[in-house]
Amino acid sequence: MKKALLSAGFVLCVLGFALAGWTGSAPGPDASLYDALARFHGHRCAGSLLGARMGFAAKAALGDKVGKGKLRAVYYAAACPLDGIQMTTGCTLGNGTIEAKGKEERRLVLSVDGVPGSVEATLTPEAAEQARVFKDLSKTAKGLPQRSPERQRAGERMEEILKALASAPEATLVIVSASQ
Ligand SMILES: [Zn+2]
Predict the structure, then answer these.
(1) Which residues are placed with Cβ below 5 angstroms of ligand 1, an ion?
(2) Ligand 1 center from residue 135 Cα (angstroms)
(3) What is the pLDDT of residues 40-79, one digit of tens each?
(4) pLDDT digits 0-9 by tens, 1-44
(5) How far does the centroid of ligand 1 lie from the alpha carbon of residue 42, in Å?
(6) Beta partners for residue 174, in sequence order
(7) 116 CA → ligand 1 middle, Å
(8) 3-state secondary structure (DSSP) of residue 164
(9) What is the CA(89)–ligand 1 centre distance, in A?
(10) Which structural domain range is residue 24 located in?
(11) Distance CA 148, CA 79 (A)
């Protein structure tokens, strides 16, 4: 039953992506970024990928403010999305411009030093749902024997989700709002 529900949810989500594609929203990061992200992050997952999409969308929304000062990021969770955000914004732990505040809010705030205003990016309910489904599948797969067909199927579903999240129109995944 749970499996059927998950499948139905996935089909609905893919349909949603397809429909939203018609409305033509902004493209996401270049496909090559996801390979670099997987190497940086150590594994392929929905969380890091969605972090990349949030970071990319938020930086784009800052427009010409980018370049007028040091970019700063605050992400309200210490989890996989942080690495995607670092890759797409250039705000890193190493250069001291990203801060993780320990609430599970999946909310990114991006601002530029010395420039008023900020941009906030959060996930749409559809994106959050896909992240949840991916996490469940990942947990299930780890409990299955290495070469079992069930594990292979779970792996295939996970790949499908990653592919859909990488190519989905931005507006179906990320909600961006700006404050002056
Ligand atoms: Zn991860």
Answers:
(1) 45, 47-48, 80
(2) 9
(3) 999 999 999 999 999 999 999 999 999 999 999 999 999 9
(4) 455 555 555 544 554 544 444 444 567 888 899 999 999 999 99
(5) 8
(6) 123
(7) 33
(8) helix
(9) 18
(10) 2-179
(11) 29
Count of Cβ atoms closer than 10 Å to residue 129 Cβ: 16
CA-based nearest residue to 34, from 26, 43, 24, 25: 43
pTM value is 0.84
Q: Find the 83 Cα to ligand 1 centroid distance in Å.
A: 8
For ligand 1, the distance from its centroid to the CA atom of residue 40, given in whole angstroms, is: 10
Distance 132 CA to ligand 1 centre (A): 12
Q: Residue 173: enclosing H or E segment and its boundaries?
A: helix 170-173
Overall number of domains in the chain: 1
Q: What is the CATH number of the domain that holds 7?
A: 3.30.1330.130
Q: How many Å lie between the centroid of ligand 1 and the Cα of residue 65?
A: 30
- In the reported structure, the alpha carbon of residue 178 is separated from the centroid of ligand 1 by a whole-number distance in angstroms of 27
Q: Across the chain, how many H-helices and E-strands are there? A: 7, 5
Q: How far is CA 82 from CA 2, 16, 57, 90, in A?
A: 30, 26, 14, 11
CA distance 131 to 137: 10
